[in-house]
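Let us work through a complete example step by step.
Step 1: write down the sequence.
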Amino acid sequence: MSTTFDLSIVNEIIDSLGCKPSAIIAILQGVQERCRYLPEEIFPYLSEKLGVSEASIYSVATFYENFSLEPKGKYVIKICDGTACHVRKSIPILEKLRKELKLTEKKSTTDDLMFTVETVSCLGACGLAPVITVNDKVYPAMTPDKAELLLRELREEKKDA
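Step 2: predict the structure and record it as tokens.
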């Protein structure tokens, strides 16, 4: 296997957290924070460095819903579809975002890795329903039109950066 991922990122994280099996979750969190997902190259590398089976590390990564084995966009948009948000029409917001970004239920990230759209069971902000988050920033009382405007603002932010 040819490694295309820069493993020095993993080494930096291990150096700061310690090279011990008990740090695996924190190490995975660190890698995901830096890379926005867990590249497949890290599993055999971490297995060797930590003395833990690759299967064990992979099982941790797949057990926790917060970890992703697929690249995510710069902007991760989460649409709450819990009871309060669903009743207050979160699905039309999801449909609008998918239409604007040319995404589907099976394809959640844009080709340019700018946006990822995900549904979640609850964001814990029921009184603000319907709610979405963008990189964990809460946007309350969302509508399809507000979501379209937000996408426009995020695209403009990208151009200015």
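Step 3: interpret the result. The beta strands are 75-80, 115-120, 132-134, 137-139.
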